[in-house]
């Protein structure tokens, strides 16, 4: 029996092609490209970027390379990854809110953090956190059922739910008292600091820009807030004879396997900030896009609901049996990758796919482009979850929702489990439809965000 027959997939049905941002004209001027970049870098890419293996260009006097071939991407992110570091603009944008945490660190500092954190994110450790996820999702569903019949902003609901999951899995307490303040910090960061300014791109990292001074003031307030969360968690205490009950316990007990070194308090604060922000925001956005796609594609939504009914259980459904649900999550992250762009600067000369690269040259690996590239995917702009249910998975260097190589996202398994469980429970509980017909266009602002938050109509099943 075929996959289509097992999941009742109507293979002859024309697949959904969701709304997309317009492609840039190939003759776009440098000024036009800069103006488009301030809104969304996705709008700076023209047809060539979706068709060619490598697109060469210039960026403020430096050579730039957009890589769309798996072999070239493997070279940069795996074989010679130590030669390619974050760009100064990327560090400027991320450091105010992530500090020197795992996402920012380089060299020995990064290796120490990665080795130390790894035990906290093993599948076994993540399994111990599933009850926190399920409880927060069930409470969200109960609140939605108790609400009025009016339209619902499911993007905001997903942000609140994943923030609650982040708080409980990190600290074992809910975010009722702290959630509003945390969301305010996230919104302030997104509105004021998440887009690079001209001087961020031009100045070396050692030369502060006017925006850097404003970022420093933000960081002072932000680190004080994270310190308050950590102090509250420590005040709750820990039974030394009991196993770790949350990520804070796991991270506090973690030791570098080579040196035995623990995190300093400042380092632990940066890791806490990284895990809460990178975890809750990216998962909330992925769940929003999945719900949006399913609202546009009722047939696929019903296929998912049927699968959920088949694995119904008290508490957490068996995630190993949610194959179609997971495929919907994976296809959602293909069309709307959490990180739409990976930018690296060459630390020294190199050769990529036969092309000479000089120190300082800009290397761009854009999951947005890679996941929609015409040479790598059939119907690249269509929503086809079944493509992730074949016996031949996509090339691991053509599908990068969590990156790849040594710097692959340490929380990838956590995020996949959370998103799959949450989507299964929500679609198992509700039929989801859009309350308006205006298209939602993806934009790139650190993550792949919607240009607006549409209202949804939900109906209990």
TrEMBL record:
GO terms for molecular function: heme binding; iron ion binding; monooxygenase activity; oxidoreductase activity, acting on paired donors, with incorporation or reduction of molecular oxygen. InterPro entries: Cyt_P450, Cyt_P450_CS, Cyt_P450_E_grp-I, Cyt_P450_sf, Cytochrome_P450_monoxygenase. Its cofactor is heme. Gene3D superfamilies: Cytochrome P450. Heme binds at residue 409. Its EC number is 1.14.15.32. Keywords: Heme, Iron, Metal-binding, Monooxygenase, Oxidoreductase. It is an enzyme of class 1 (oxidoreductase). The keyword Lipoprotein does not apply. It holds the Pfam family p450. PANTHER family: CYTOCHROME P450 (PTHR24305), CYTOCHROME P450 12A4, MITOCHONDRIAL-RELATED (PTHR24305:SF166). Belongs to the cytochrome P450 family. This is Pentalenene oxygenase. The gene is ptlI.
